[in-house]
Amino acid sequence: METKTSGLRGRQAEAARNDQAILDAARAVFIRDPGAPISAVAEEAGVGVGALYRRYAGKEELLRTLCEDGLRRFMAIAESAPARHSDPWDAFAAFVGEVIDSDVHSLTVHLAGTFTPTPEMHRLAAEASSLAAQILDHAKTAGALRPDVDARDIPMIFDQITAIRLGDAGRTAALRQRYLTLLLDALRADTPATPLPASPPSDEELGVRWRHTESSRSSQHRPRR
Amino acid sequence: METKTSGLRGRQAEAARNDQAILDAARAVFIRDPGAPISAVAEEAGVGVGALYRRYAGKEELLRTLCEDGLRRFMAIAESAPARHSDPWDAFAAFVGEVIDSDVHSLTVHLAGTFTPTPEMHRLAAEASSLAAQILDHAKTAGALRPDVDARDIPMIFDQITAIRLGDAGRTAALRQRYLTLLLDALRADTPATPLPASPPSDEELGVRWRHTESSRSSQHRPRR
DNA sequence: AGACTAGCGGAACAGAACCTTCCGTTCAAG
DNA sequence: CTTGAACGGAAGGTTCTGTTCCGCTAGTCT
């Protein structure tokens, strides 16, 4: 965003390249395993851990940066989808599909709880979910979306689809689209709809995931091989 | 299963009670967090770690026991559902719903990779998935289930729904039923069906999850509070 | 050319988490 | 009262990981 990688040479060019490489590596690694050690990021980026600590004060700051970046990507998708699709249903489907494709949800909610969120991030999160709610509302008032789904159901849908993780990134993406397609069939207004039990999660319940949990321990997620 | 808790008194009764308490605690704890330390199990059971090591040689053995128990529960559901519901769709819906309610999927697949599976477990797993395939086939040939879903889609569905984890156990269960209801609407044959992209996961892909991954590190899963 | 320095790699350090062992204690049974 | 099965939980030893530190490299500047 702010570092111009264009007109630089020599050492400065390497530094700029590393800036990018580290961010990309961190994204890849932490999406694969939110509890990965920082050395794994360095290895994936092909740099030493020192290079990492030169740019970020510590792990938390890296995580925060990554998460904020994720929120911005999310908002970019939420803003552009309705702009590119005049049909409300298409906009909704595109929005959901692209969020899943870019795996932005793993970057935000899945990483939250690993660090203390900044007020700025709360602001971004609120704005983002408001945008998402708008997209859903448009599809609903247009009569394309079944009326008993709520805006708060959306994060849950992301949670579910994002849980799919099999094989390499490409295969995972393909499988996710498969099950998203299935889900979308259930969400369309012309589907015979069974009344949904229970209420969607409240804002409170959804917000809990952003609260910093002292000690976010645990295992799971099989780092292949 | 084998320990009679009935006619015992004193120390032996306490031991028998602890057998149960430990198993229950382990189930609860490891479902909540598959990477939980063994001391967490002891604490939840209200016993010391010593009591735990008296019955199991180590963590792995406890995990294996738990997982095998889960597989048997799974099979019990898969066998009883068709027996209780003559309508193939009802049997299918009951099967899926009950597996999710008992959270048996977290006990099997989510714990696999944490230990080296026994041949016996492979046998059970194969038998279980074969039973599930039968239930699905019946619903499909009866024309109740959309024809483009495969038996291999079932574990994926479990994965997705099981990813929902919000609030206490009760609320989580309620939310899971909500999204299962939604999904079932997509699976019914009379739903206008969009062709599903990509192929369902292969047996190979699904099997990977049972392979013991040296070092199943990582974090994630927020232990509430 | 030669000195300077931003930036780098990775060993070393320090601390935390965890599995497992060990031992003193408890209490029902004989 | 003696005995020993079963228990609780501190201590041991290991592994893993965040962070620091320092010697080295290669552009850059005079």
From TrEMBL, chains A, B:
PANTHER family: HTH-TYPE TRANSCRIPTIONAL REGULATOR BETI, HTH-TYPE TRANSCRIPTIONAL REGULATOR RUTR. InterPro entries: Homeodomain-like_sf (IPR009057), HTH-type_TetR-like_transc_reg (IPR050109), HTH_TetR (IPR001647), Tet_transcr_reg_TetR-rel_C_sf (IPR036271), TetR_SbtR-like_C (IPR049445). Residues 206-215 have a biased composition (Basic and acidic residues). It holds the Pfam family TetR_N. Keywords: DNA-binding, Transcription, Transcription regulation. PROSITE patterns: HTH_TETR_2. It comes from Actinoallomurus vinaceus. Gene3D superfamilies: Tetracycline Repressor, domain 2. The keyword Transcription applies. Residues 191-225 are annotated as: Disordered. Residues 16-74 form the HTH tetR-type domain. It comes from the Bacteria. This is TetR/AcrR family transcriptional regulator. Residues 37-56 bind DNA.
